[in-house]
Amino acid sequence: MGNYRIAVLPGDGIGQEVTAGAVEVLKAVGVRFGHEFTFEYGWIGGAAIDEAGTPLPEETLRLCRESDAVLLGAVGGPKWDGNPPHLRPEKGLLAIRKQLDLYANLRPVVCYDCLASASPLKPNLVQGVDFVIVRELTGGIYFGQPSGRVVENGEEKAVDTLLYKKEEIERIVRMAFTLARDRKKKVTSVDKANVLSSSRLWREVAEEVAKQFPDVELEHMLVDNAAMQIIRAPKQFDVIVTENMFGDILSDEASMLSGSLGMLPSASLSASGPSLYEPVHGSAPDIAGMNKANPIAAILSAAMMLRLSFGLATEAEAIEQAVHQALAAGLRTADLAPSGGRVVATDEMVEEIKTAVLDYT
Amino acid sequence: MGNYRIAVLPGDGIGQEVTAGAVEVLKAVGVRFGHEFTFEYGWIGGAAIDEAGTPLPEETLRLCRESDAVLLGAVGGPKWDGNPPHLRPEKGLLAIRKQLDLYANLRPVVCYDCLASASPLKPNLVQGVDFVIVRELTGGIYFGQPSGRVVENGEEKAVDTLLYKKEEIERIVRMAFTLARDRKKKVTSVDKANVLSSSRLWREVAEEVAKQFPDVELEHMLVDNAAMQIIRAPKQFDVIVTENMFGDILSDEASMLSGSLGMLPSASLSASGPSLYEPVHGSAPDIAGMNKANPIAAILSAAMMLRLSFGLATEAEAIEQAVHQALAAGLRTADLAPSGGRVVATDEMVEEIKTAVLDYT
Ligand SMILES: CC(C)[C@H](C(=O)O)[C@@H](O)C(=O)O
Ligand SMILES: CC(C)[C@H](C(=O)O)[C@@H](O)C(=O)O
User: Fold this and answer.
1) CATH of domain A1-107+259-361
2) Given B142, B164, B277, B360, which residue is catalytic?
3) Taking the mean position of all CA atoms in its chain, how far away is CA B51?
4) For residue B339, what pLDDT band results from cuts at 50, 70 and 90?
């Protein structure tokens, strides 16, 4: 029996609907297992720009810092696309990652048997896929300085900086090895060491950290090859660890193995304070407010929160099993329609999962 | 009837075998169409390090500059993996790109009907795929300065710089639009404008260039989404234009649409001098010298040379048709085995294609 304060930042578009679904499922967990979850809401992204004139208000940050964990929806939308860089919804996301020191982004890629046919890949290639991408989230080219526009000798230029400190690499690689130890004991470190200086440092540090984990195998893979191998033979992977931008690209690619981006949860673990949980998908403005979005990525993110922030493994399993049951019963949101089954609305999917959680034995 | 000087740089590993195959096919074109091709050989990559102590000897560069076009194999191998950065085979490739001003890397992605089943993707998704990735090749994070290691306040760091000048973006985007005009009239410009300054400049310039091509549609796509869309619905693409690193990652990923990396040719067009043609695949040390490699990517690169450097469209078509015929006749190198047919050695595949070129009517 515990008391947990959860900051909920729905953000924009379908972020609203999917976090609402995840909150309902968490409430069901509370009822079933006798925990008390408190939900407090904050603005982020476009919604925060509209309400408070900035994509990450101080108030939201304070709320997060006072909470035990953060549940985020998604940010962005055409409404703010024309805004100057510092007033874009994405800045709120980047800022919260930096401010809360959310350095380790865990993106599990799992293919549910009954969804294998929803993947663009051949079912035999994706059935049984189960790996996790560990993406560095607070460094690299996302945050390096200088970054901006310069005019030199009448020439217009733009520059971005990919910077990594040794410690930043160390802690994320160590996280990957720690995870691998409880899994299939294999770490694939993805870099571009034949071109980038930062990748050569990355590779060196990975080798060093590996020495502390003699029971885990380390393999290096160039990012171009990794982009190919993820679709050529995805079952070869256990834990993939990589820098911020490569992780962004590879995890969106890998989402197709699970049939839909709507299935992928993520955890962004903090070095110091509360961690943050969010679906990998975006705000999907085209279907926002239509009760069509797949709430499963957000719901599975809530399960990750229970396991990783609160140490509630059984409760997390109850959610995961409930998701399995709903899918096995043939319920499909629109994004999963290619795999057959019966297409249902967001709230119907949530209801089914909630009920299964309440019935968990 | 023309005379053409071709510099051949086989490089390392299977680079040797596949360029040998392409040269044989070019000789057949010479016989069939009455052209004279002169082939002169130079070292590059690991072979050049062994022979001349540097991955791109001056002599090789001179040879290329005096030629009408360059045919390259592949570089790299475990033998040189422990070398210091400036003595790595890849440096030779990066240096020749920069020295010859090979700014526009064209990577066509075509799925041959009879190979559709060799792709990890479902056949109905890849059948009919026909797009080209236009990758900027002499700028961006591959060449930006500073790039290296620094120790600051006892902290070890590594840095790379993503830099683009406006003109660099302009010329590559213009190339993409020019190609699209003769194709399906659609350009997808891939960037990460929600994070990178260089991408925001890229997007602006793309918009500007688009005004000069009112008959071609321009669409912007974020790189993470592009990595997903390429496998989700590859037929939506006609011409993809993007910066150096994104192009590297996306083109290796896209190679899986054609069944094998062994099928993908490329052209690297120069702003000023001779252009360079090379297969997208690497040196594949594991099968080097075993007469197993797929020579088709190199042979199709030779066809691109005929069309783009020499204006020999019919001759290029003769090669492409010969490749089609060999595949339709059921010949498959080992990499294509999943699509059925009869597995043949490199030289047998070359022989079949050569014969078909000689018989071209
Ligand atoms: C919205 C964007 C800034 C973000 C990123 O690039 O990190 C998103 O793509 C993600 O993967 O969370
Ligand atoms: C070998 C390497 C430097 C090269 C690159 O990254 O450009 C290769 O991957 C390619 O795509 O030609």
Assistant:
1) 3.40.718.10
2) B142
3) 26
4) confident
Q: CATH 3.40.718.10: which residues of chain A?
A: 1-107+259-361, 120-258
For residue A121, the 8-state DSSP code is B
Give me B360's structure tokens.
């071209």
Q: How far apart are CA A147 and CA B80, in angstroms?
A: 35
Give the Å distance between the CA of B8 and the centre of ligand 2.
19
Indicate whether B1 pLDDT > 80.
no
For the purposes of burial, counting CB atoms within 10 Å of the CB of B211, is it exposed (0-12), middle (13-18) or buried (19 or more)? exposed
d(CA B187, CA B185): 7
| pLDDT tens digits, A39-56 | 999 999 999 999 999 999
Instruction: Compute the distance between CA of residue B35 and CA of residue B283 in angstroms, rounded to an integer.
Output: 30
Instruction: Tell me, using a 6 A CB cutoff, whether residue B195 lines ligand 1.
Output: yes
- Check the annotation: does A135 bind a ligand: yes
The tens digit of pLDDT for each residue in A81-114 reads: 889 989 999 999 999 999 999 999 999 999 998 9
CA separation, residue A194 to residues A30, A209, A350, B83, B108 (Å):
51, 21, 47, 11, 24
Instruction: Give B145: exposed, middle or buried? Use CB within 10 Å, 0-12, 13-18, 19+.
Output: exposed
- Give the per-residue pLDDT at B308: 97
Q: Tokens 């079949």 correspond to what residue?
A: B352
All CATH 3.40.718.10 domain ranges in chain B, comma separated: 1-109+260-361, 120-258
What distances in angstroms separate CA B146 from CA A145, A152, B87, B140, one per listed residue?
12, 17, 19, 12
Question: Does the distance separating the beta carbons of B155 and A166 come in below 8 Å?
Answer: yes
CATH architecture of B1-109+260-361: 3-Layer(aba) Sandwich (3.40)
In this prediction, residue B123 carries a pLDDT of 95
Q: Give A90's contacts (C-beta < 8 A, 6+ positions apart).
A: A45, A55, A75, A76, B194, B195
Which residues on A lie below 8 Å from B233 (Cβ)? 120
If we measure between CA atoms, which residue out of A278, A233, A277 comes closest to residue A254?
A233
Is the overall model pTM greater than 0.90, yes or no? yes
Element (H, E) at B33: helix B15-33
Confidence of residue B338 (pLDDT cuts 50, 70, 90): confident
Q: Is residue B12 annotated as part of the catalytic site, yes or no?
A: no
B228 within ligand 1 shell (Cβ under 6 A): no
pLDDT in tens, A56-87: 999 999 999 999 999 999 999 999 988 998 99
DSSP annotation of B357 = H
**How many CB atoms are closer than 10 A to CB A310?**
17
Scan for tokens 């490329």, then name that residue.
B266
Q: Tell me if B194 and A88 make a contact (CB, 8 A cut-off).
A: yes
pLDDT tens-digit readout, B99-111:
999 999 999 999 9
Facing residue for A198 by CB, picked from B159, B167, B249: B159
Return mean pLDDT, chain B: 97
- Chain-wide mean pLDDT for chain A? 97
Strand (E) or helix (H) holding B196: none
- Mark the ranges of chain A whose per-residue pLDDT is less than 70: none
Instruction: For the domain covering B120-258, report its CATH number.
Output: 3.40.718.10
Question: Contact at 8 Å (CB) between B10 and B47?
Answer: yes
Phi, psi of A27 (to 5 degrees): -60, -40
| A147, A149, A248 ranked by CB distance to B224: nearest | A248
